[in-house]
Amino acid sequence: MLRTPWPVYLYGIHDPGPWRERFRAAGVTGWVVFEETIGADPGDMSGRGSIYQSWAEAGFGVIVVLNYGRYPNGTLPTSDRYEAFARRCARFVAASPGAHIWVIGNEPNHPQQQPGARVDPSARRLEAAEWITPERYARCFRRCREEIRSQPGHEEDLVIPAAVAPFTAALRYPGNPTGDWVVYFHDVLTAIGEDLDGIALHVASQSPDPHSIADEDRFPPPYEARRRGFRAYRDFIEAIPPHLRYRPIFITEASMGDQEGHPIPWPDADTGWISEAYAEIHRWNAEMPHSFIRCMVLYRWQRVDPWFMEGKERLLDDLDRALAARFRWDVGLQHYPQAILRQEIRLCDRPGGRMEGASLPQGLAGVALACTEDREWYAWLHPETGRHGWLPRDALILQGDPQSLPLDSPGPIFLSLRRPAVLRTAPSAHAPAILELPEGQRGIARMTTADRGWWQAQFDAHVGWIRAIDANVEGDPRAVPIVPRPWTDADLQRLHLSLLWVEPVLHRRKPSPWPRRPLEVIRWLVLHPLRVPGDLSPEALAAFLVEQGGQPGFPYHFYITADGQIFWTLPLEAMTGHAGGYGRVSVGIGLAGWQADQDPTPLQIERTARLCAWLLTRLQLGPSQIQAIQELFPGGSPFGEEPGIRSALERVRHVSPHAAKIREMVRPILEEARMPVPGVPEPAWQDLTGSLPTRSGTAFPLRPLGHIRSLILHQTGTEAGITPLQIAAYQVERLGMPGASYHFLVDAEGILYRIHPLAVAVSHMATDNATTVSIGLIGDFRRRPPGERQLSATAQLIAYLLDHLGLGMESVKGHEELEPVPCPGGWRIGVAWRGMLMAQIQAILRLYRSP
């Protein structure tokens, strides 16, 4: 599909140079990477002329990295200029014949590649005008790819996402609080979806020793799942979503990297590093049936940074020896029969299934990877583009021995144990054991890790993880689903959690019953006590809710049975109606067996707390954002118009203490796992709810927490030493109010008092009581501002409430900003203490929120 065939050899060097003659002398061709800085002026029509063409005509594969700028301007511009940058990319491509592989940007997770970057290593300060989150990168990439492929002669060019900087954990965002580079890589690919044509990787051994190439050393927590050297390329490949695993992979930078922050330059010596690195990639390609690496490009030729190769003749002797091995990227495909298309045809997603993608032309050559037992359907791959699917036998001309192909058998994939093995709760040798299994025991495979090193399987009534080395596989292992995300292994192991991914087998009305949302909008984890037997399976409940309740699909993201088994039932991106209007911004957790006359089991409480701990870390929420459904809707169920769910739920009054227990357990669970506790912590307060005077026969109304939009500050206008009891007594007995008119009071010593739950809509203003929180500072501040301790405690309380309720700084207001009253005194005029308070609130939020 490209104008010229790709080189079959793995070799390449970053930057053009006279090294091309070295390749010719060895009788091989290879790859060259050009890196360009092109700006974002859509009126700029310039390109590189014929330089790419000369390399392409010499038989080399040309890869071009397109950057907006260099440090501190960023590899991409700010998001308001993505459209202009995409058009500039198209203009550059049109003026640069000979190149048909384009990489958009470079290492977008690296702090120095952010737009407006300010990096001060000595002060450990990393700042940027805007961080390139996966969602931002995907938005820019899609526009660039669309513009490039709209240019005549470039309709089928490969447009590839930027390689991610390995071992770089600076960019943190909701869903990736540790900045894990592999999670960032996976999130970028997931955000882009199907619209990418290949995958770029960067690798570095972090050592000049050639023996380090094959090291399996790992990082300490929280990155203990990540390899710390050259084989980090395998972490990236394992994180590629299954639907992209046949896309071509290009290692566009390979080097010795750095050690403790200091570059390891190429030595002028024949160490054997280059030869061993190419042999490692050759072994990978020879062993794997997919995820082929097309090239490994050494970084770099030109003398522009410490990693240059130019002029180092003894180093180049090592390169000559590698070239003599003539390693090809397609070595793993050579034992599969070639399959040529007899006619123009579209691929099917499974034997006899739905057609998908664009038509393939007659005569296109690919390989057959597998076939059905009746040999009527063949799994077909076009290696150069990664197009993969099923075709009928009569659409192919097979060359080679089709009898050697593995059979694709429908039905379950069985595992039989080669030796006694331990069934564990997670894919780790350190995970808790469920039971010991004898040699010869057979089970059904349900899921596998991306490297197929572990299998999740069911043995009789027990489900858990076993090592792949301990089992024989009966059937095609590619038919077994891969765990959905790369972060599951490490983080869930540290929290001693095992999740059973059952979404594909749950009953639904259509393949995707729920719309999707970005994870950034999620603000709550909602616990649903379900009036169903504690051992009811999620399959049975899903069938009931869909068939009897009229639901489009299972409404909860997780489902936990009384024995503590956690079923992962929906992706977090699914936006369901599990909690009325809160469904758009929350994760639903269904808990079986919580009934009015039956408490949850201790194991169910403990597993729920561990699940919530993991979700809070993933979504960057605080423990207070775990809420039982009736805590969000204290005035009644949100399900009056949803009988399908209503019939499966019972609102039970005794669930609130259990929800509080789960919130309390989260912090020690995370601390034990050495994981940060996200969110602004709940400040210490004296809880006076229910203990202060109230007026008999009257009460403030209740409201859902989602109705709250503002935090309103008041002063009591009293002496600083007055107590909450005196304030409540005065307002009830003298003013006739149902209770005190504050949710919180802060005294002069900085002691916080909680007067009412947030769900109570207290009367503290003439209007807007249903959408506001009342915070009273004890004292009169017309002549002097609150003292340091009172102001600091107020700032901590407000920062917590903003984080807890998902509100911004604009939500903090003085009473005087809404109504013509001098409350609180000195707020904006006179002593004007508003600015001091706001500065303290912002400092607290910066402390606890990721960039």
Descriptive notes:
By secondary structure, this protein is α/β, with parallel strands linked by helices. It is built from 17 helices and 39 strands. The chain has an 8-stranded parallel beta sheet with strand order 7-4-3-2-1-12-9-8. Strands 13, 16, 17, 18, 19 and 20 form a 6-stranded mixed beta sheet that branches. α3 packs parallel to α4, α11 packs across α14 and α16 packs across α17. The longest helix has 18 residues. The two termini are 42 Å apart. About 3% of the residues have low confidence.
Ends distance: 42 Å
Strand coverage percent? 15-25%
Order of adjacent strands in the largest pleated sheet: 7-4-3-2-1-12-9-8
Class of secondary structure makeup? alpha/beta
What is the gyration radius calculated from CA atoms?
A: 31 Å
Total helical segments: 17
In the predicted model, the low-confidence regions spanning at least 5 consecutive residues are 485-489, 637-654
Report the count of strand segments. Answer: 39
Please describe the biggest sheet, giving its number of strands, its sense, and whether it closes into a barrel: 8 strands, parallel
